[in-house]
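FIELD: query
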Amino acid sequence: MGTFRKLAAACAAAALATAGLAAPARAAVPDGHGFVLWNGAATVPGGTWPPATIVTPGGSGLYRIIFPGQAARGGVVHVTAVNGGPAWCQALRWGPTGADEVVYVRCYKPGGTPADTPFSAVFASSTPPDGLPGQYGYVHADLAGTVISQYNSASALNSVVPLGPPGQYRVRLPGLATPGPVDGSVQVTAAHPNVGAHCEVARLASSPAGQDVIVLCFDGTGTPLNTWFTLSYQYERSLFGSAVPPKYFGYLWNMPPPPAPNVGPPPTNFNSQLGPGANAAAPAGLGLTLVGFRALAQRPDNVQATPFGRAGEFCNLQAAWGYSGTTVLVRNVACYTPAGARADSGSFTSYNSEF
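FIELD: result
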């Protein structure tokens, strides 16, 4: 209980007297989206939208997800394993089938061996016009850095440039202006169709010119690897790209230690109900971080986590998120070395409700 008391105290200290965001007119963003929490045997209604979403296991860590009525061109998929031990998941492929969006994901254990596991996944696809507050963008790129699909709320063109060494990419999202030097949150997911791979964020640099992100990708043994991947950036926007609705979303950056956790500056810690700096994190053991999002609990909802580091770390959720009153408790974001040992790497955690 000590950890929960520490987190509650940190949340209370961080709370702002900021009123909830005023609701603007709804724009077209996104064209289609969906999310699902799979517990290993069934979808979890409180973590799934649309409610009729279907997950079909294919064996050896393979899953097919059908988001009914959400067919859209392009877009991105993010997926986070939910497991008490070291495991990660990646996107394989996705696209419309009739009126539905069909997504395939595969999950792995250290070394790159496919393995079944519970997971949390999200799909989102957008096209202009935008007109919403905040900043939002995404890319889906192939292993050579060619952009397959992209969105930019400022109507600029995103780019991906390989940096030379295997598995290193620079993603630029111009026009997504923020004060800097580090603002907002990033989620990144490997999308290799044939090889187990995972990616992490090595740097986020923010400025009035836009966002500059360094992404590092690795195979299951921790060897740098060129791979397809997806990346989403959010600044005072939901991970789906929409805002108000949902009225309940937030994100938090746990910077690399020491100490651990080391919560990033207020522009990387946003709460749609309480403003910047209102979310909190508390240490829960080596490589474990308990994250709390105050005043945001609103089902159905989704949580994603991405590692921040340079050594091939991967992160998952040790268990599905829970609730204490209106506080969402993510217990815990768990991060690992490529070999599966706990590691105090940094991480980005994003919470998003449908409403």
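FIELD: remark
The longest strand covers residues 197-207.
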